[in-house]
Amino acid sequence: MQVKVDRVLLPSLHTSGTACSTEANGNDDAKVHKIRSEKLTERNKNDIVHEVFILDLKRPSLQKRNDVQRIDIKKILNGWRLDDRIINNYIGMLNLRIRNGRTFIMDTYHMAYLVNFENMLEKESAEEHIQANIKKRNKIINKWGFDLKDNDLILVPVHSRQKTHWELWVIDLKFQIVRIYDSKDYGAQRSEDIAIITAWVNSIWKLRIRNIVVVSKRNGYNIPSQGEDNFVDCGVFMLKYMDSVISGEPLCDMCETFNEGDSRMKKYRTNLARELLCN
Q1: What confidence tier does 127 reach under pLDDT thresholds 50, 70, 90?
Q2: CB under 8 Å to 259, separation ≥6 — which residues?
Q3: Residue 242 CA, distance from chain mean position
Q4: What pLDDT, on a 0 to 100 scale, did the predictor assign at position 25?
Q5: How many C-alpha atoms does 135 have within 13 Å on its Cβ side?
Q6: DSSP 8-state secondary structure symbol assigned to residue 262
Q7: Do the beta carbons of residue 149 and residue 204 sit within 8 Å?
Q8: Distance, CA of 217 to CA of 211 (rounded, Å)
Q9: Which of the four pLDDT bands, split at 50, 70 and 90, describes residue 248?
Q10: For residue range 196-223, what is the model confidence (pLDDT) as tens digits?
């Protein structure tokens, strides 16, 4: 039996987001164009428009710079799908912002490490191979310089191989629940990914996941979601779900469905680009 989440958190998609100057408010379109134009012409030689500060996993007490490229901003502002570099830059910023020892966001490659079947040996069973992948991944994590065991919440971006779709999996270690935030619930089969995530959790925290809750409109949760004709904004919604879980902001008052090209989504994408450029 599914357990309902007591509180679903998500900041309003209608807010202006983080601003780096007075250009963030009022007359948004013209002023953001000015920010964008200035940044995009700044370092054309190698297409790097900005260096974003993110958490340095090898030296977690320090920051490191990571490149935001012209194509990244173009993808965000032109309504394209968000790729790994954009999402991981944003995740790195959020991890740097948190630093509370209670919450950590894995990067987009985490699940890819765990589900990698390309190097599977003929004599291995699927379960043996997954356990081997988990062991290799944990060796990498142990080199980061801090202990994941100290965290209460682990956020994992998961890319569905069935539907090329981003979801946010929130592992609540206190209550031993995984909440899957899905902006366009396809009713996808997740049994394999669930088995892999629960095995990984058990390998580090020695806990068994008691429940899986899919947070989506299909399951009665009033969260902002993609419309039926929207196949590109799942990554954007995933980042906002991350913002919400981290900040503890209550669910926004207007949790509507956003179709592709929706003017409100364009505004939110503009704010996302501004955050990356102004960090």
Answers
A1: confident
A2: 226, 227, 228, 229, 230
A3: 6
A4: 41
A5: 6
A6: -
A7: yes
A8: 19
A9: confident
A10: 999 999 999 999 999 999 998 888 888 8
Contact of 151 with 102, CB cutoff 8 Å: yes
* List of residues 6+ apart from 151 with CB closer than 8 A: 101, 102, 103, 104, 173
Helix (H) or strand (E) holding 166: strand 165-172
Q: Which two tokens stand for residue 16?
A: 């202006």
pLDDT at 50: 66
Distance CA 101, CA 91 (A): 16
Q: Measure the CA–CA gap between 153 and 183, rounded to whole angstroms.
A: 20
Contact (CB, 8 A) for 276 and 48: no
Contact 210, 242 (CB under 8 A): no
Q: What residues form DSSP beta bridges with 55?
A: 63
* pTM given for the model: 0.80
Asked if residue 8 has pLDDT above 50, the reply is: no
By DSSP bridging, strand 177-181 and strand 165-172 are: antiparallel
Distance CA 76, CA 82 (A): 7
**2-15: average pLDDT:** 35
Q: How confident is the model over 81-95, as pLDDT tens digits?
A: 999 999 999 999 999
Q: How far apart are CA 99 and CA 82, in angstroms?
A: 25
Can you tell me which residue has the tokens 């997954």? 130
Alpha carbons 100 and 239: distance in angstroms, whole number: 19
DSSP 107-164: -TTHHHHHT--TT--TT--HHHHHHHHHHHHHHHHHTTSS-GGG-SEEEEEEEETTTT
The token pair at 218 is: 């299909």
